[in-house]
Amino acid sequence: MIAATTTGPIAVDAAGAAAAFSCSVRHWRTLDTEGKIPCPVRLNRSVRWIVAELHAWGLAGCPERLEWERRRAAVLPMAEVAS
After folding, report:
1. Mean pLDDT for the stretch of residues 31-35
2. pLDDT at 42 exceeding the cut of 80
3. Residue 27 — pLDDT band, cuts 50, 70, 90?
4. Domain residue ranges in the chain
């Protein structure tokens, strides 16, 4: 699991996120397409996942995206600002 620290990355690419959840990049991208993981953020052409959100999502039991969106505000206080 990715530990949210002040010295680590704030966001990771698909390879970093997949490694944190012990799956392949291909499987991670399939989960994204199917709406089963949190939404990534896009910075120009770069697609990244926020480490703190992935950590909270994993601790919440990895709910599907729609359920996570409903529960995220309670778990991540800054989620309302970022949305």
Report:
1. 98
2. yes
3. very high
4. 11-82
